[in-house]
Amino acid sequence: QVTGAAPRVLEHAGSGVATEPSLTALPLDALEAGRVVALQLTSPHALVTQLTALLDVGAVPLVLPPGLPPGRAAETAERMGASHFVTEREGELHVQRLHDPLTLAFPGYLTCTSGTTGGTPRVYAFRTAVAEQNARAHLEALHAEDTRVIALPMSLAHSFGLVAGWLAARVSGATLLAFRDTPDPLTLLRVASQHDVDTLALTPPLARLLLKAALRKPLVVPASLRRVSVGSAAMTASELLALRALFPGADL
Prior knowledge:
Blueprint: E1 9-12, E2 36-40, H1 44-56, E3 60-63, H2 70-79, E4 84-89, E5 92-97, E6 108-112, E7 123-127, H3 128-141, E8 149-152, H4 159-172, E9 175-179, H5 185-194, E10 199-202, H6 204-216, E11 227-230, H7 237-246
Parallel strand pairs: 1-9, 2-3, 2-4, 3-6, 8-9, 8-10, 10-11
Antiparallel strand pairs: 4-5, 6-7
């Protein structure tokens, strides 16, 4: 069970423009032990805030990908016995009460696959204590236990995003720089520089976009950057050597 405040989240749109977080709170009947509450939120700040609030009272959040069509997202929430389906409309939370909710005594959260391939989204359960251990192990693997600002330009709704973003910031006390949509390389570096990012997590496609941009003109790399990680798929040795040259002052 989570205790303490949610980590500080700096939220930006894909364009790099700072956005104002929603201040709407969940209804009290959603904040009950054993409730399964489905969250489909594009705002990283709102997602982190509501996740923490639900886990603090022993509820079980179900994190749905923002790209999952609304009908299929609602079906998944119903299938998992959620009592509420929470979405975002014009910067405010919209809460829909569902039928036949289940009570689930499980100290953790649920995530699901994107559902973009046409099949029924598969749901996975993660115990909070184990997920926090994974977040600490990830930071230790990067030698980033003392990180101050983490930039994660990928969706927090992804199970890895929750560990490397939300939970890594929570267990380390770091600030999390997050985006509603994946930023372009120049925007990512500009915003990372503005916020003194020291730890940057990339996916291979975003890393390749950075390398292509660097071929067109020299990139301004944040002076604060101390470590860069790339995960979720393979990269070639030549790509990794090019990344090392792009970030000469950071561990890769």
